[in-house]
Amino acid sequence: MQLKDPARHSYLELARRKTLILGEISTGKTSLTARFLKEALQTENPKDITLIDMAPDKIIHRGKPIGGRILDITELPCAMRVLQPSRVNPPRHSAKSKEELLKFVEDNRKAIEEVLDIYLDRPTPILFINDLSIYLQSGRWRKIFEAMNRSETFIANAYYGETLKEDLGTEVSEVEKRLVEKLSDRVDLIIKLQGEQRSRKPQHRL
User: Fold this and answer.
1) Domain ranges, residue 183
2) Angle formed by the axes of helices 142-150 and 172-184, to 10°?
3) Among 162, 185, 187, which residue's Cα sits nearest to residue 174?
4) Is 164 a member of any domain?
5) CB 3.0 to 4.6 Å from 193: which of 2, 23, 43, 78, for a disulfide?
6) Burial 121-160, CB ≥16 within 10 A → b, else e
7) pLDDT number for residue 92
8) Are residues 148 and 18 in contact, defined by beta-carbon separation less than 8 angstroms?
C-alpha cells in the first residue's frame, strides 16, 4: 500500500510491525519519528519503549539543517529508556580528507555499537531509532537487524538521497545506500518522505 500523506497516519497503524522512514535531508524524518514516539507513549508503557538516537548535533549543510536529536524537539518521560552515543560526527560534512572521513565513520561505529549492545542485552518490545543510516556507513548491519528482530515494534528513520553523496572517494555513501536498501527489504512498511531531490525508491512502500 502506498502512503501518500504520512500526516494522516498514526502509531497505532505501525504497532507490532517493522517500519522504516526514508528521505532526503530536511524532509521531516526526525519530526515524524518523534510524533510517532509521542503517540506511542499515549498507549504504551514507557518502560516498554527504547529510543536509540544515533544523530549528530544539528548543523547547516548548504543552507539546510541536517542531524539533530529527538530530545532537541520533544520532551520524553524519565521512565522511557533513551540511549545516545557519547559523540557522533557527521563524516561527509566535517571531514577534510579521505582518511579523516573514514576515521569519523569508525569512531561513530564504535560509539553506536556501545549503545546497541546495551539494547541487545536488555531489549524492549518497542524500539525507535533516529538516523540509523549513520551507523550503516561503516558497512556493519547485523546488530541493527538483530535489534529489529528483538523488538515487536520497530520504527526507524534513515537518510536516503543524493545531497550528501560526496564522500571524498571513500565509497561510504554507496555502502550506506546499499545497506539502507537491504534493510528496506526486511521491514514491513516504508514511509518515503519526498524532498527536492529524489533517488531510486526501494520497492516496498507503505
Assistant:
1) 6-193
2) 30
3) 162
4) yes
5) 23
6) eebbbbbbbbbbbbbbbbeebebbeebbeebebbbbbbbb
7) 85
8) yes
